[in-house]
Amino acid sequence: MKRGGQISIAGLVLAGGRSERLGYPKQLLPYQGATVLEWVVRETCRATLLDQVVVVLNAALAEWAAERDWGRAATVVVAEPSAGCSASYRAGLDQVSPTAEAVVVVLGDQPGISAAVIDRLVSAWRKQRALVALMRYRGELGHPILFGRELFGELAALWGDKAAWKLVDRRLDAALLVDVDAPYPRDIDTWADYRALLNVTTETR
């Protein structure tokens, strides 16, 4: 929700990984008539209450992304992919509006996350402000994760993989947990993960 034209909630789509375990850019895998990343950005994030969407890419995807229509979403290339996902946070937060009250972190290889789930997280946070808010799927914590502006500096200063979870773990006792009565949607690290994702998609049609 925008207030006076200012950006209130930003979304940060992380797609800067090198897909080392898969051996192929998982962001480019086909999914429901698009690629995995296009689905996450176009069909999910752009359909939410998010006021701004920033997509963090690695250099190998930059040329491909430049030829796509991302609508209101902006793209940025991570400068130091070897530093893990923390480099993606730094690159993305540099593009987030200075008026943003919070940022919602969405994984670019997790197309099972719905716009409704993101909006549910944002709406819950607006009613009960917390430094950290995240989803709880039948007891399992997962994305999307919301960080209040007060934590932007700490998020950008983290190093290595699983950076956001390090911050979540430190703040978990005071975190806002939003429950969803559904299994946690898969992200893609291996070909088995991808095949399982396609099977789930086929079964739910």
Describe this structure in words.
This protein has helices at 36-44, 59-66, 85-95, 115-127, 152-157, 163-171, 191-203; strands spanning 9-15, 30-31, 34-35, 52-57, 74-77, 102-107, 132-137, 140-148, 176-180. The protein has 205 residues and is α/β, with parallel strands linked by helices. It has a single domain (9-203), classed as Spore Coat Polysaccharide Biosynthesis Protein SpsA, Chain A. The strands form 2 sheets. A 7-stranded mixed beta sheet has the order 5-4-1-6-8-7-9, sandwiched between helices. A two-stranded antiparallel sheet has the order 2-3. The mean pLDDT is 87.
What topology does this entry show?
Elements: E1 9-15, E2 30-31, E3 34-35, H1 36-44, E4 52-57, H2 59-66, E5 74-77, H3 85-95, E6 102-107, H4 115-127, E7 132-137, E8 140-148, H5 152-157, H6 163-171, E9 176-180, H7 191-203
Tally of helical runs: 7
What is the name of the CATH class? Alpha Beta
CATH topology: Spore Coat Polysaccharide Biosynthesis Protein SpsA, Chain A
What is the arithmetic mean of pLDDT?
A: 87
CATH superfamily: Spore Coat Polysaccharide Biosynthesis Protein SpsA, Chain A
Question: What's the total count of β strands?
Answer: 9
Return residue spans where pLDDT drops below 50 for at least 5 consecutive residues: none
Strand order of the largest sheet: 5-4-1-6-8-7-9
